[in-house]
Amino acid sequence: MGQMKRNISKIGKAPGSAIYTGNKESFETKIEYIMYNESDYKRESVNNLKEIDWKAEENTWINIVGINESEVVEEVMEYVNLNSLVVEDILHIGHRPKIEIYDDYIFIVIKMLTFEENNLRINSEQVSMILHGNTLITFQEIEKDVFDPIRKRIANKLGSINKRHMDYLLYCLIDSIVDNYYILLDEIEDKIDELEEDILINDNESNPLPEIYKLRKELLLLKTAVWPIKEIVNELQKDYSLLTEPTRIYLSDLNDHVNQIMDYIVVYREMISTMFDTHLSNMSNRMNKVMTTLTIFSAIFIPITFLAGIYGMNFNYMPELSYKYGYPIFILLCFIISISMLYIFKKRKWM
Fold first, then answer.
1. Looking at domain 3-282, what is its CATH homologous superfamily?
2. Where are the bilayer-spanning segments (predicted)?
């Protein structure tokens, strides 16, 4: 479903309406939670949110996959005093990445992106996050994500993630999504290199314009997904009681990554624009070569046509017409003229 169609589906509805705007055939809802601290770790899948101890002292990460069942998202309101507009934003998967700071929780929307090389398309999955005390709730459309390394770090007590506050896990999830953009950009760069080779080196006569237009469009969509993350990071760096000072230090590094990714996007868009101009230039050069060849042949036949026109006139007194060797001499003359003109064109490097 296109972004505009998702917005149209909400026209006429009351603000805060819990309407899922994504693919109705999404995965069935799965709920998993991870409770951990410096010494303990527990990971379990549950059928409903009531099976989770919401008052546990350990850090608790609740991951809800498959938000097409809006009732599950609305049920979260029983445990966290969510604004109805937040629930609407979670279910409206075409939402722009953003951050909203409330009195007792932080709400973040961000895009998880993957590149489909065969169709030159960037697939976007919306991930919503709610940080509420020592509980972090994440909402995903589909089960596949980039969080497995973080799950392993928690399970194996690697690094300092088990020793830190829940806001550090929030940072780790956002950082994991942003780092995955590098993989996406690397795949796009490989495709750009392939197109450049076809245009500049192989000089294929195939038309790369559809692929160039697709890449330009997808890079524009990538920019709209990445640029708002700067606003999210800048807002998180402000002095909010929900965030600890050590985590803000890491946010500066995350901001650097976002700036670098934006630089890559600008460079790639310029490269694609250059490829577009180069392709048009190649097409013009090929057309010029064709016109040059046709012009040369036309120039060669001009004097031959002139001679043929003279001897094609119906005058009674043309001594060459009755000459025994007139015809072979005429053919030989035409041949000499053609060879002479080809020699002149070659010498002057016109062909």
1. CorA soluble domain-like (3.30.460.20)
2. 290-313, 325-345
Residues of the chain with CATH 3.30.460.20: 3-282
Distances (CA, A) of 51 to 33, 45, 154, 342: 10, 10, 21, 90
For residue 79, the model assigns a pLDDT of 84
d(CA 257, CA 96): 20
Distance CA 226, CA 259 (A): 9
* CA-to-CA separations, 347 to 91, 285, 289, 340, 350, in angstroms, rounded: 73, 21, 18, 11, 8
On whether the pTM is more than 0.85, the answer is no
Burial class (CB in 10 A: 0-12, 13-18, 19+), 39: exposed
Which stretch of DSSP H or E encloses residue 137?
A: strand 135-140
**Residue spans in the chain of domains classed CATH 1.20.58.340:** 288-347
pLDDT in tens, 184-236: 999 999 988 888 887 777 665 667 788 888 888 888 889 999 999 999 999 88
- What secondary structure letter does DSSP report for 26? P
